[in-house]
Amino acid sequence: MENARTTEATAAAWFAKRDSGMWEPQDQAEFDAWLGSSLAHRLAFIRVETVWKQAHRLKALRASTRGGQVPPVGEWQFSPFFESKLTPGDLPLQKRFAVSILGTWARGVAAGLFLAVVVAGSWYMISSRSLAYRTAVGGTETVPLPDGSVVTLNTNTEIRVALTRTARIVSLDGEAFFEVAKDPVRPFVVDVGNERVTAVGTKFSVRREDESVRVAVTEGHVLMEAKGGAAQPLARLAPGDVASADPGGVLVRQKPVAQVEAEYLTWRQGYISFRDTPLGDVVKELNRYNVRKIRVSDPAVAAIRIGGEFRVANVDAFLRLIQQGVPVRASEQDGFIVLQHD
After folding, report:
1. Which of 11, 68, 226, 255 is the most exposed place for a label (fewest CB within 10 A)?
2. Residues 159-170: tens digit of each pLDDT
3. What DSSP assignment string belongs to 137-149?
4. How confident is the model at residue 120 (pLDDT cuts 50, 70, 90)?
5. Which fold has domain 270-341?
């Protein structure tokens, strides 16, 4: 199965061949087919083009070397960007690291063009703006991003954000609500589990739990794709669509936007809502927000169906209400709150 590293290598190979002067019509047709088969392919090629444009920052300069040849590693010099009068030991750590990467890759790459792409890619990874945010169990946080987008993180969630000239990429572990600033030339991509969710300007939530991913859209449109580079998208989602994806496939349900807000997004106000929901599922959801965990070991108790709105941080209030409304009692056992038949 194709992975991110393979995709990047293929994109670099296509770029090198296209600029080699040996580009035939058949090559163009095959390249167009590869490029159009997946958003991952298109993003990878854009990244390669971008880093090549920045390659002048890391030049290999040698007066006696003929065009098209790479000088020996020991004769690499600094471009003006690195202030050539400095020695490597005088450079800041970030620049020394970039030069070190140059030497390492130069020993193993034969083609000068491909070497330049890889070297520039190393600098690209260093210089791209990268941010990370995390919430604790029970916490939520609203984070404005430099591009104008706003992300609200739910409990125990981590995101890593990479902002470049060609894309805005967020890796998500947990649950978050995205209010994406419009930028037609830089798609907003959320990598989560085995899926990739892409938008330009929209509002949607993404939640990952084990091997399942849920996307709920309240404004605009988003595209769900498999990370492996499947030729067809998994789903195209509009406002009111809720998509649930797992290894078995994707299910899309259409609901009024107000219902989507009420069922899936009230956590932003500090409470969660249930309607005719098994008690076991309610407990599982509340446990996401609290260090004090509730346990239901009796299947008959777990199957009791309840409804209501509960503050996520107030376990004691939930226990009082549940014991008043259904025939169960709560007790402390082995560090857990255990619900049993009364």
Report:
1. 68
2. 999 998 889 999
3. TT--EEEE-TTS-
4. very low
5. Phage tail protein beta-alpha-beta fold (3.55.50)
Token couple for 63: 């007066």
pLDDT attached to residue 342: 84
Most distant CA pair in the chain, distance: 89
Q: Which of the 8 DSSP states describes residue 155? A: T
Six-digit token string for 260: 């989507």
Supply φ then ψ for residue 269, to 5 degrees.
-100, 5
Q: Within its chain, how far is the Cα of 296 from the centroid? A: 34
Predicted confidence (pLDDT) per residue in 171-222, tens digit: 999 999 999 999 988 999 999 988 899 998 899 999 998 889 999 999 999 9
Q: What is the dihedral of CA 131, 135, 140, 142, to 10 degrees?
A: -10
d(CA 174, CA 172): 6
**pTM of the full structure:** 0.63
Confidence of residue 317 (pLDDT cuts 50, 70, 90): very high
Q: Classify residue 185 by burial, with Cβ atoms within 10 Å: 0-12, 13-18, 19+.
A: exposed
Domain ranges of the chain: 4-127, 129-261, 270-341
Residue with tokens 């020991």: 74
CA 198 – CA 187 distance, rounded (Å) = 7
Q: How far is CA 280 from the centre of its chain?
A: 30
